[in-house]
Design a protein that fits this description.
- There is one protein chain.
- With 417 residues, this protein is mostly beta strands.
- The protein has 2 domains: 247 residues, no CATH class; 160 residues, Conserved domain protein (Immunoglobulin-like).
- It is built from 5 helices and 25 strands.
- It has a 6-stranded antiparallel beta sheet with strand order 2-22-23-19-18-17, with no helix packed on it. Strands 3, 8, 9, 12, 13 and 14 form a 6-stranded antiparallel beta sheet that branches. Strands 4-16-15-10-11 form a 5-stranded antiparallel beta sheet, with no helix packed on it.
- The radius of gyration is 22 Å and the shape is globular.
Length: 417
C-alpha cells in the first residue's frame, strides 16, 4: 500500500472522548469539505486488488442475558440464528486458545483521521493501513477507541482453511453503547517464517459487542483470508483489535480435501473449480476464471467521468445445492484480479452440508452490468450512487442508463465423501 504519512494530517488519539471532540470541532468549523482523500474509493474495502463480496455481519443478535452460560467457552453457541449465521456448529470444532493467546495493550495507539466530504471518514494507522472508512456519525456513535480499564479475553478459534472465526469476552465497568465495536487491522498470517498475506488483501468483521450481564460483553469476529494455492494447516495469526495487539496460533479444523480441477465455459467466459474443502461447519470452494477484457472491474475514475462514459462489469455469482435438493447460502466470495480479465479466489458455504447428500452441485454464473453515464458525473468521490446507479435519480435524469443480465457458465458436480 502506498505510504500516506507525508500526505495526511497526523493526529495522536489517546482517548475516545478527545477524538470525538476533535472531529466535532472540525465539523463545527466547516472544514469538512476542505479535507479530501486521494485514495481511490474502490480501494477502501480491501487491500491490494482483492474484493470481498457479501461479508455478512459486523453484528449478531443475542436472545437475552445468559448469566447461567459460562463465559469461557461456548460463545459460538450463544448467538441467535434467526438474525444471522448459526454459529453453534462452530462450537463443536472450536479450539480453546485462552491459555496460548498473547495479548498486549498498546498504550499509545496513533491513528490518522481524515474527514472526507459528505460526512464520510477515513482512519489510517501508523503502518498506513486503512482501518476504517464510512459514515462519520456511525463511527462516532459506535467505535471504541478508549479501552482503559477494559480486559480482553479471546476464547475459542475455528479455522476452516479460508476463514478464521474467534470469540472474545470484554470485562469493563463502563456501560458500552448499543452496536459498539472495536477497529480491527494490521492482519498478518505467518506460515514457516513467512507472512503469507504480506502482499494480499483480507477482510475483517470485528463483531458487535453484546452485553450478557453487568460488566460483561461478548462478540464473534471473522477474518476473511485471501485464497492460497496451498492448504494452510498451522499458522500464527497477528492482528490489532482496538488497542490490543494479539498473537494467536491457529490450526486447521478437520476437513475433507477434494481435488476437482474441472473447467466449464460459455461464450467467452471460462471458470475452473480447482479444490473443495468440506468440514462439519460447511465448505470452501476454490476457483479461477477468465472473461473478455471489456468486462473487467470498473475503476472509480469511470464513475467520475474521467474515462469513456460506457463501461461493463461482470462479477461471479455462485449457487450451491446438493443431490437431495437442499440449497446452501454462501458467506464470502474473495476475488484477486490478475490483469483485469483473469481472477482467482474462494467462496465459503456457511452451513453444514446435509449428512445424506452424495453430491454438491456448483452453478457458476456472471452478473453483468452495462453502464452508460450520459452527462452524469460523481464529483464528490462519495459513492452516493455507486453500485446503486439503477436507483439514482440524478443518474437517470442526466441520460444515464444501466442494464443488467446474467450469463450461466455451467454446472460442476462434486462427489461428496
Amino acid at each position: 500500500m502506498k505510504d500516506l504519512k507525508n500526505e495526511k494530517v497526523f493526529i495522536e488519539i489517546p482517548s475516545e472522548l478527545e477524538v470525538k471532540q476533535e472531529i466535532k470541532s472540525i465539523v463545527d468549523r466547516g472544514l469538512v469539505k476542505d479535507v479530501k482523500s486521494n485514495v481511490k474509493r474502490n480501494t477502501l474495502v480491501a487491500a491490494a486488488a482483492v474484493i470481498f463480496v457479501s461479508l455478512f455481519a459486523l453484528g449478531f443478535a443475542f436472545p437475552g442475558y445468559a448469566s447461567q452460560i459460562p463465559l469461557i467457552g461456548g460463545i459460538f453457541g450463544m448467538f441467535d440464528a434467526h438474525h444471522h449465521r448459526d454459529y453453534s456448529a462452530l462450537q463443536g470444532v472450536a479450539h480453546d486458545v485462552s491459555d496460548v493467546v498473547n495479548i498486549v495493550e498498546l498504550l499509545d495507539a496513533n491513528l490518522t483521521v481524515n474527514i472526507l466530504e459528505d460526512g464520510l471518514i477515513e482512519i489510517i494507522n501508523e503502518r498506513g493501513d486503512i482501518v476504517k472508512s464510512g459514515d462519520l456519525q456511525d463511527w462516532i456513535d459506535s467505535v471504541i477507541l478508549d479501552t482503559e480499564g477494559m480486559l480482553l479475553t479471546i476464547n475459542d478459534v475455528v479455522f476452516d482453511g479460508q476463514n478464521v472465526y474467534f470469540t472474545y469476552h470484554i470485562t469493563t465497568e463502563r456501560m458500552l453503547s448499543e452496536n459498539s465495536f472495536f477497529e480491527m487491522s494490521a492482519i498478518e498470517l505467518w506460515v514457516d517464517g513467512v507472512n503469507v498475506i504480506d502482499s494480499e488483501g483480507f477482510g475483517v468483521s470485528p463483531g458487535i459487542l453484546q452485553r450478557i450481564s453487568e460488566n460483561n460483553y461478548i462478540a464473534v469476529a471473522t477474518i476473511f483470508l485471501p485464497a492460497f494455492s496451498e492448504i494452510v494447516e498451522y499458522a500464527d495469526l497477528y492482528f490489532t483489535l482496538g488497542t490490543w495487539q494479539v498473537e494467536l496460533p491457529i490450526e486447521l479444523t478437520e476437513v475433507e480435501v477434494i481435488e476437482v480441477n474441472e473447467t466449464i465455459n460459455y461464450e467467452l467466459f471460462e471458470a475452473t473449480v480447482t479444490r473443495v474443502l468440506i468440514s462439519q461447519i460447511g465448505g470452501v470452494i476454490y476457483y479461477h476464471y477468465s472473461m473478455p477484457i471489456e468486462y473487467g472491474w470498473l475503476e472509480w475514475e469511470f464513475f467520475r467521468g474521467l474515462l469513456d462514459p460506457r463501461g461493463s462489469q461482470a462479477t461471479l455469482q455462485p449457487n450451491f445445492r446438493d443431490d437431495l435438493g437442499n440449497e446452501y447460502d454462501w458467506e464470502s466470495l474473495t476475488t484477486s484480479w490478475d490483469g483485469g480479465s483473469h481472477a482467482r479466489g474462494s467462496i465459503t458455504i456457511r452451513e453444514p452440508l446435509h449428512p445424506e447428500a452424495s453430491e454438491l452441485i456448483i452453478t457458476l454464473l456472471m452478473d453483468i452490468n452495462d453502464w452508460y453515464l450520459g452527462d452524469w458525473r460523481d464529483p464528490s468521490d462519495s459513492g452516493v450512487c455507486g453500485v446503486s446507479l439503477h436507483d439514482c435519480e440524478e443518474f437517470r435524469a442526466a441520460g444515464g442508463s444501466a442494464e443488467h443480465r446474467q450469463v450461466i457458465i455451467g454446472e460442476i458436480i462434486v462427489p461428496l465423501p
